[in-house]
């Protein structure tokens, strides 16, 4: 791949352009907002000048509702040898393209499973896709050349290609992306009118649950509007669980011992099913989740502290498998949780104590 045209210079489009430009591809940028294209160009993502002829690959990175029309126009105008989109839904745009009479042999639907809470070209980074799955949804009509171009794009962005059927993809992202976003927003919405004393008690749990609720609502309306059926089906199943859970909690308020036991059993059932589902989430490097031990350490909020504790872990010969920080309310300190292999706990804790760190149970 020597040349590419990115249509849509938001977070995803500009991030792909930055990755390609950084690896020697001559990237052209186009956006309905010329200022956005100029901003992306100023960041080194390519040029906002139109290409002189067909490029190797046209990457359409526009909201789902506009994908089919944008692709159809690009194909009609012969802008490239191959065409892909990076929308978060795949079945709908393909069917819309078919209805528009577009030649689908040069088209391949894709979806990089990466993003941020911020949007726009200023939020883009060349490493956004590194190590992340990038779904490809070829059909029997897809030219091998286009598939190879898409695979080259994924490799240049240092992502991991995953081949799926388009409708299977849409059902999958409804489960692992779209529904969680709605549920996060619903929980976060409870905080809007909550008493200030309650909000001040927010800990890491509520921060984890509501993190993705900070995303752009207009963008998510467009995403959800393109995949409403699968999301509604999953939410209906969640609603049934919520109804059962409410009944279980009400039963715990009853004076009758049998009803209270029934309520406790109902709660335990949903919690155990949650345990079983959580255990299926891939762990480090996509492997099965490992049973790590957590070493919790008090850490000051000042420059160099993270570097120092990681250096001390290295001195102990311990690999940190994962890390979390829980910030203390109203204090310039927090608790850092270092996840390590069980056999490494003794060596790590001994070294950290020798280096003056304050450990917590």
Which short descriptors sum up this protein?
Prephenate dehydrogenase; four-stranded antiparallel beta sheet; alpha/beta; PDH_N; tyrosine biosynthesis; Alpha-Beta Plaits; EC 1.3.1.12
List the helices and strands and how they pair.
Layout: E1 3-7, H1 11-21, E2 26-30, H2 34-42, E3 55-60, H3 64-76, E4 80-85, H4 91-99, E5 107-112, E6 133-137, H5 144-156, E7 160-163, H6 166-192, H7 196-199, H8 204-210, H9 217-225, H10 228-252, H11 257-278, E8 293-300, H12 305-315, E9 322-327, E10 333-340, H13 345-354, E11 358-360
Structure, explained:
The chain is α/β, with parallel strands linked by helices and 361 residues long. Among the domains are: 162 residues, Rossmann fold (3-Layer(aba) Sandwich); 68 residues, Alpha-Beta Plaits (2-Layer Sandwich), CATH 3.30.70.260. 47% of the residues lie in helices and 17% in strands. The chain is built from 13 helices and eleven strands. The chain has a seven-stranded mixed beta sheet, with helices on both faces. A four-stranded antiparallel beta sheet has the order 9-10-8-11, with helices on one face. Helix 6 crosses helix 10 and helix 10 packs antiparallel against helix 11. The longest helix has 27 residues. The chain starts with a strand and ends with a strand. The mean pLDDT is 92.
How are helices and strands ordered from N to C? EHEHEHEHEEHEHHHHHHEHEEHE
Average pLDDT over all residues: 92
- Assembly form of the protein: single chain
Count of individual beta strands: 11
Query: What helical percentage do the residues reach?
Result: 40-55%
Total helical elements: 13
Q: State the secondary-structure class.
A: alpha/beta
């Amino acid at each position: 791949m020597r040349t590419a045209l990115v249509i849509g210079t938001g977070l995803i489009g500009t991030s792909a352009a930055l990755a390609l430009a950084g690896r020697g591809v001559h990237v052209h940028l186009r956006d309905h907002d010329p200022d956005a294209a100029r901003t992306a160009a100023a960041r080194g993502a390519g040029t906002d000048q139109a290409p002189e002829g067909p490029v190797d690959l046209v990457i359409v990175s526009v909201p789902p509702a506009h994908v089919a029309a944008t692709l159809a126009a690009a194909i009609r105008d012969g802008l490239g040898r191959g065409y892909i989109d990076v929308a978060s839904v795949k079945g709908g745009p393909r069917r819309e393209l078919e209805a528009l009479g577009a030649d689908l042999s040069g088209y391949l639907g894709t979806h990089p499973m990466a993003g941020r809470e911020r949007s726009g070209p200023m939020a883009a980074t060349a490493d956004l896709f590194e190590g992340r799955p990038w779904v490809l949804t070829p059909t029997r009509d897809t030219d091998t050349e286009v598939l190879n171009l898409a695979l080259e794009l994924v490799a240049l962005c240092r992502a991991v290609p995953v081949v799926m059927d388009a409708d299977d993809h849409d059902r999958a992202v409804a489960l692992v992306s779209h529904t969680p976003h709605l549920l996060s927003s619903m929980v976060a919405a409870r905080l809007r009118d909550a008493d200030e004393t309650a909000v001040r008690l927010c800990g890491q749990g509520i921060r984890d649950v509501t993190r993705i609720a900070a995303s752009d609502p207009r963008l998510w309306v467009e995403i959800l509007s393109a995949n409403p059926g699968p999301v509604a089906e999953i939410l209906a199943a969640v609603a049934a669980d919520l109804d059962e859970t409410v009944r279980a909690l009400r039963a715990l308020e009853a004076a009758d011992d049998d009803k209270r036991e029934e309520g406790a059993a109902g709660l335990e059932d949903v919690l155990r099913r949650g345990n079983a589902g959580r255990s299926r989430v891939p762990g480090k490097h996509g492997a099965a989740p490992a049973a790590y031990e957590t070493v919790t350490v008090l850490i000051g909020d000042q420059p160099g502290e993270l570097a120092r504790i990681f250096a001390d872990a290295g001195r102990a010969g311990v690999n940190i498998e994962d890390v979390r920080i829980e910030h203390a309310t109203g204090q310039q300190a927090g608790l850092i949780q270092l996840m390590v292999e069980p056999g490494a706990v003794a060596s790590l804790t001994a070294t950290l104590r020798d280096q003056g760190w304050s450990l917590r149970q």
